[in-house]
């Protein structure tokens, strides 16, 4: 372990920076900064990729030698209105196409909250399952896997009715592991004492067509938990090492479950966005080595 | 069911107002308003009771014919520093004494967050168990039961490392049901699909000395979940009916588990505190009849 991770290719071999961590950087600035620091992976978001052009973005990251570790995000599959629901399914197929173009096998799903006026969490979760049945085969045909992301229970009403890894697995396990996996994010799951058992269960899954590396674990994301939470609770994710999460212990759990894929750092934090993006990226890589790696 | 609950004694038979819901009212104003509206129960907090005088407060509520359904709050049992820990245990014994003086059998515990710099959730939960072993018999001798309250996972770092009913039960079940129960609050638990199974398990518990009414369920509290959450996420609890929680369904679950005790409305909401307290109490009683009762 060194104080500065930059340039230490072995230490950063699994490191990936989610685009939202340094959203102040344009895509070319991001790929440049990654190349300079030896960062091998990026997680991308649909909106900035669409603005840049999906094919152009794919070329940019490929030319930079970067691996796209995930695309965020599909989902929002809880609508009851038929027209809204059809629109959501169409949009998710488009997201699958974009993931395939970008060369990533993982489309992260934020499943959606309760429709206005509804109090039926169970019904909303069943509508997600119905949508997965329709989208799973389409994704698989395009070499993409859907990754259900359980979001912290504080988002259950308005953003994602899938709040625990247990709930995510109960949905995913109805489908082949080649079609539907889960996104494991420390920020959302750190408080749950069932995580060791659930991560092991996720990792142990085999596919319908044979073994799948990492089982159901499609991507591992890390962020720290800091307080007080800001209003709206969206933009308060902590830089690695600043908060309450045992990041190294969590990473060891995920590794022990058989996951050997990328470790993607996804921070939504206004203070980090106000700083120089390349500097934040360097800091994040250094924090990763210090707080997540052995 | 009527539009206005006031004066309908049968409808309000189980209704209790937690003092924090109308904290703008002094204790005499609160007991007066309860008497006028036919509210039979109150949940009290230590600080306002201490300011008024514990014995005087006990006399006031007794003379008003009110039942004290719980006292909030003991807890904060996660400190590692020996002096701090001893102080917390002493304070909890004082809280038991106050509960006994007020004539309530239920002391609600907010267990405490992680000590500064710690990331050891499991260790913190074990220190709570150690403290319960010391405090449980003391409480029982004084006719008081400790009620572990699982708080929403968004409070896990800084307020309460017990985040689910499952975690609360795993702690409580190490002790006789006469000594340690749980507080079930819709605001904290509504998102969890394991609640039906866990509430049933809590209700089915028997004591070391025989059956205990409601099993481990010492008190049932209700509040609605509204978004967006305010900064700090403490003061955003919704008036009954304004949010995402299926309050009636939750109450039916708790009843089906064998709980027949008070339903205490506990709202921390700055908008409600800015209004006339007696008016808020009347509205809350009416909302209770409309959204919680059959």
From TrEMBL, chains A, B:
Q: Which residues form the signal peptide?
A: none
Annotated Gene3D superfamilies: Divalent-metal-dependent TIM barrel enzymes (3.20.20.150)
What is this protein's record name?
A: Sugar phosphate isomerase/epimerase
According to the lineage, what is the superkingdom?
Bacteria
Q: Which UniProt keywords are present, listed alphabetically?
A: Isomerase
InterPro entries according to UniProt:
IolE/XylAMocC-like, Xyl_isomerase-like_sf, Xyl_isomerase-like_TIM-brl
Xylose isomerase-like TIM barrel domain residues are 32-283
A GO molecular function assigned to this protein is:
isomerase activity
């Amino acid at each position: 372990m060194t104080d500065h991770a930059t340039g230490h290719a072995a230490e950063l071999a699994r490191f990936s920076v989610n685009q939202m961590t340094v959203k102040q950087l344009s895509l070319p600035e991001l790929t440049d900064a990654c190349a300079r620091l030896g960062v091998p992976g990026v997680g991308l978001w649909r909106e900035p990729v669409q603005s840049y052009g999906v094919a152009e973005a794919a070329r940019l990251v490929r030319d930079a030698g970067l691996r796209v570790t995930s695309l965020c995000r599909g989902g929002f599959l809880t609508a009851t209105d038929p027209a809204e629901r059809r629109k959501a399914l169409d949009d998710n197929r488009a997201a699958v196409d974009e993931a395939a173009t970008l060369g990533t096998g993982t489309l992260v799903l934020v499943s959606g909250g309760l429709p206005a006026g509804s109090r039926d969490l169970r019904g909303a979760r069943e509508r997600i399952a119905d949508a997965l049945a329709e989208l799973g085969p389409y994704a698989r045909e395009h070499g993409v896997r859907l990754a259900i992301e359980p979001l912290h229970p504080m988002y259950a009403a308005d953003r994602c009715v899938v709040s625990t890894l247990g709930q995510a697995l109960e949905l995913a396990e109805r489908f082949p592991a080649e079609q539907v996996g889960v996104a494991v994010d420390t920020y959302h799951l750190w408080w749950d004492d069932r995580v060791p058992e659930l991560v092991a269960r996720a990792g142990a899954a085999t596919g319908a067509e044979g073994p799948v590396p990492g089982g159901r674990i499609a991507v591992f994301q890390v962020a720290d938990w800091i307080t007080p939470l800001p209003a709206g609770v969206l933009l308060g994710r902590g830089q690695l090492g600043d908060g309450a999460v045992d990041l190294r212990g969590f990473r060891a759990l995920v590794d022990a479950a058989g996951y050997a894929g990328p470790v993607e750092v996804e921070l939504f934090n206004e203070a980090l966005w106000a700083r120089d993006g390349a500097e934040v990226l360097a800091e994040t890589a250094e924090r990763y080595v210090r707080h997540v790696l052995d």
